[in-house]
Known about the structure:
Layout: E1 36-42, H1 51-62, E2 67-73, H2 85-96, H3 115-120, E3 139-142, E4 148-152, H4 161-171
Amino acid sequence: xxxxxxxxxxxxxxxxxxxxxxxxxxxxxxxxAGQAILLVNVASKCxxxxxxxxxxxxxxxxxxxGFTVLGVPCNQFAGQEPGGAEExxxxxxxxxxxxFPLTExxxxxxxxxxxxxxxxxxxxDAEGHSGDIRWNFEKFLIGRDGxxxxxxxxxxxxxxxxxxxxxxxxxG
Length: 172
């Protein structure tokens, strides 16, 4: 790990992070303090894009209990998120009925990696993978205390038992 990677697993990962909302202007990440968050790098033209359905179901099921999905559009994997903010918003709304918040497009790997992902990549999933994001729809569960409690591979379906169990554990 480089010194820009987040290595302190007890520090809230969203603290002080600046990122814009998909609509433009700063996304107020502080509004999620005390909530559990499933943070996902998303794309509109990926074989895994149907996961939007499961993500939206999680949002609907748990939002009232202090949970949100937070989508981070990313175009780093085979150019699968080529559109601008309006296109992304329209696609997500019209195709999948997405109501959860989306940020601006961000890089999750490489020299241009967004600060948020610099803080996340040091966390390992259940198989021990840490480091670079492998593909669209890699998921990080952030607990109510703001620390990462789990990382899930892109292929792990949002409504899988392991994700649902982890979310429910955070919601008490």
